[in-house]
Amino acid sequence: MARHGILIVLSGPSGTGKGTICKELLAQNENLHYSISATTRSARPGEVNGVNYWFVAPDEFRTMVEQDELLEWAEVYGNCYGTPRRWVSDMLWSGHDVVLEIDTQGAMQIKKKFPQGVFVFIIPPSLKELEDRIVKRGADSPAVIAKRLGCVQGELGFATQYDYAVVNDEVATATAKIAAIIVAEKCRMERNSDLIEAIGKRGSID
Amino acid sequence: MARHGILIVLSGPSGTGKGTICKELLAQNENLHYSISATTRSARPGEVNGVNYWFVAPDEFRTMVEQDELLEWAEVYGNCYGTPRRWVSDMLWSGHDVVLEIDTQGAMQIKKKFPQGVFVFIIPPSLKELEDRIVKRGADSPAVIAKRLGCVQGELGFATQYDYAVVNDEVATATAKIAAIIVAEKCRMERNSDLIEAIGKRGSID
């Protein structure tokens, strides 16, 4: 009996290290695939359509939004980015797992459209640690850092809508926990009631 | 911040191998302890009170039942057996995890009294396999084997009340899945909302 894959949504405040955890998970798990976003932004040199992004024209993107073909979308600096529902569904249907790493607002959009996803909130061990990470990353100005940290309280407010909380005190430990969550979720009764039915009716799960 | 342990209830039809999985889990996991039953049966040579069982007098057992001190209990061949709530609570409170292996009726009793437990239904890969295992075990007469197999359909009917389904096609694989379930359950948001609160209020989870 072929089993469907699951969608794992890694989310949490900026600077919690969800990107690093996501890369580690993908490196360790052959059956796990990263969700490829659709974007209206132009491809940069070296970027490949269907690998880095699905590059689409603005009116094509608009059609996807109108036809509810995106699990979530957002506009950032004049470009649109979104998660195509079809690609995710096809992967899950063929038994692959899909992971995506996204901010809390995107995660909450996905939860509305795809509640059967597994929503993991990555927590920094402390706000001080979070600040250190954002500063160390060196990508943001002091004003942007202050703004990011100001958003954290609001983002923590979404946490209880997630299924799991994983503290990122160490990348290896946090990654192992999320790998365990994937294994456990595949065992959840609501994803396996067909097995129980099969053994009751046909005497075997095959 | 000290975290409480969790109670794992391994259950399923007779012959699914839950006993073997339970032993494997205990051997691999130092923080996991086997729930010690109270019994009115006399100690056999070599059995130690507080290790193999809590040996109690029948009127003491009756008092435990009356005062709701047992998470479940049953009478088997004139002797009573039960799971003391106090011992389990003390272990969980001090951060240890507790596992117990029990039939579906016992598991359903525990679920009523301790719904925060984690209930795992162990499935045999097939009814044929189940029959082979019970026959191979050599502990039962053909009449008892027929009766056990006749009960399986009824026991499968309880399955959907469990949190997880684990197929025991191979002991090592099934044990690894349950170990992952323990890790994942500790990450569930409802067990960690205090972490989110702590970081929001005090800036740290410690």
TrEMBL record, chains A, B:
GO molecular-function terms, A-Z: GMP kinase activity
Xref: SUPFAM superfamilies: P-loop containing nucleoside triphosphate hydrolases (SSF52540)
Subcellular localization(s) per the UniProt record: Cytoplasm
Signal peptide span: none
The entry's keywords: ATP-binding, Cytoplasm, Kinase, Nucleotide-binding, Transferase
Enzyme class of the recorded protein, top EC level: transferase
SMART domains the record matches: GuKc
Presence of keyword Heme: no
Guanylate kinase-like domain location: 5-183
Catalytically driven reaction(s): GMP + ATP = GDP + ADP
Main localization (coarse): cytoplasm
The organism's place on the tree of life at top rank: Bacteria
Chain sites annotated for binding ATP: G12, P13, S14, G15, T16, G17, K18, G19
E.C. code: 2.7.4.8
Cited function: Essential for recycling GMP and indirectly, cGMP.
Family: Belongs to the guanylate kinase family.
Name by which UniProt lists this protein: Guanylate kinase
Annotated organism of origin: Anaeroselena agilis
Lineage: Bacteria, Bacillati, Bacillota, Negativicutes, Acetonemataceae
Chain's gene name: gmk
